[in-house]
Amino acid sequence: MLTIAWDVDDVLNNLMRAWFEQEWLPGHPDCPCRYEGITENPPDRLLGVARSDYLDSLDRFRLSPAAGRLEPTPEVIAWFHRHGHRFRHMALTATPLRSAHLAAEWVLRHYGRWIRSFHFVPSPRKDEPDLPYDRTKEDFFRRGNKVDLFIDDNPIHIDAARRVGIRTLIMPRPWNGERQTLSAMLDTLSLLDNPSRGESLLGGNELT
């Protein structure tokens, strides 16, 4: 049975849109940017603010009740209901230490039927300790954790997985320039529902 590692924010949910529309825009009504125009992540340059101001705003949202009410990405949760039982699943996310417990609770509440383990690498914050291991997702992968396929929205993390020989799929979002639609990405993932066929695909060129 193949093991899929899922990023959380903007893969299993749509954190960026929720933060932008519920947290940022109400406090910045003159902001000319719209979600579809967030072609960089982090988007501080597009918003015309310091990186620290963006991160403070995002962290406030992560710790707010609104973040707990985030809904799963509809297409992704529908895929889990149809195909999730055919794979092993784990979550691997980058999040600040202060909000990791909330992310874990959210994942298990919505995806716990399928996702059996939650892992995170700490997004650095100036007022949090620098943990001595697994500072990046690549560090996590290099420790020999068995993952057959990794799904993320961030090209940096996608490239990190590829460097250690893990096949990847990228979640289409405005900031990564992915042209494949979410529906097409999930259709590709569905081709792996047969273990023997999945091993064949993972050894070929269908996934990158």
Task: For this entry, give a set of tags.
42% helix; Rossmann fold; 208 residues; 2 domains; alpha/beta; five-stranded parallel beta sheet
Describe the 3D structure:
42% of the residues lie in helices and 13% in strands. It is an alpha/beta fold and 208 residues long. It folds into 2 domains: 3-14 and 72-202, Rossmann fold (3-Layer(aba) Sandwich); 15-68. The longest helix has 13 residues, at 15-27.
- CATH level-four homologous superfamily name of the largest domain: HAD superfamily/HAD-like
Number of domain modules = 2
Annotated CATH architecture of the largest domain: 3-Layer(aba) Sandwich
Spatial strand arrangement across the major sheet = 3-2-1-4-5
DSSP, total strands? 5
Inertia-based shape:
globular
N-to-C CA distance: 20 Å
Give average pLDDT, whole number.
91
Q: How big a fraction of the residues is strand?
A: 5-15%
Q: Describe the sheet with the most strands.
A: 5 strands, parallel
